[in-house]
C-alpha cells in the first residue's frame, strides 16, 4: 500500500487534467498538497475539493515561467507547511504538432518556456527544501513519449520533452541520493488540452497494445508510486505510461 503521510507535495498545472489527478491522488495518500496553476479559479476549486474530502491543500497562483512567481510558490509553501518533500513539475503546453518550418518564434519559445524552463526555475528554487531532512526529496517531471521519439508532438513540444528527460537525468546525477528525480512519459491522455484531438488520439493509439488513450488518474497513480518509498531505488529514469506506444 502506497502512503505518503506527513509529506508536502507541490504540483504545477494542477487546476485540471493530469495535474489535478496528481494533486488529488497525493492528498488521498495523506500528503499536504500545494495546487499551483495560472488558473486561479481552477486551482482554488481543486484545493477546496481536497479539503472537502478531509485532505489538506492550498491553492497558489503561479506562473512557472516567471522567476518571481516561482519564488512566491516556494515561499507560500514554506509559510503554510514548513517544507517541500515532493515536487511535481507537471505544467505543460502543446504545439499542435507544428513542424519546424511552420513554427513561429512565439510558438517555439512559448512551449520551451513552459515545458522546460519552468521545471528548471521551480526545481532550482525548491532545491534547498528538497535537500533538507533525513529523507530524500523527490522530483517528478511530466515528460512524454515525445521525449523519446518523434511523432508525439511538433518540433517545439518534442524538443522540450527530450530536454526535460535530460534535465531529469542530470538532476539525479548531480543531487542523488539527496534527491530522487524521475520523469513520467505519458502517451495519449484524455485531458482538457486534448479534448479537440480525440480523433487524432484514437488514430495514434489504434495500433498500441492498449488500443485506447489513458485517463489522468492512470498517470497520477504512477506519480504517487514514484513519490513513495516503494520507488526508493528508482533514480533518474523516464517511465513510459503509454499503453505500449513504444513497444515496437
From TrEMBL:
Its EC number is 1.1.1.100. GO terms for molecular function: 3-oxoacyl-[acyl-carrier-protein] reductase (NADPH) activity. The lineage of its organism: Archaea, Methanobacteriati, Methanobacteriota, Stenosarchaea group, Halobacteria. It is an enzyme of class 1 (oxidoreductase). The keyword Oxidoreductase applies. The keyword Membrane does not apply. Belongs to the short-chain dehydrogenases/reductases (SDR) family. Keywords: Oxidoreductase. It holds the Pfam family adh_short_C2. This is 3-oxoacyl-[acyl-carrier protein] reductase. The gene is fabG6. It comes from Halalkaliarchaeum desulfuricum.
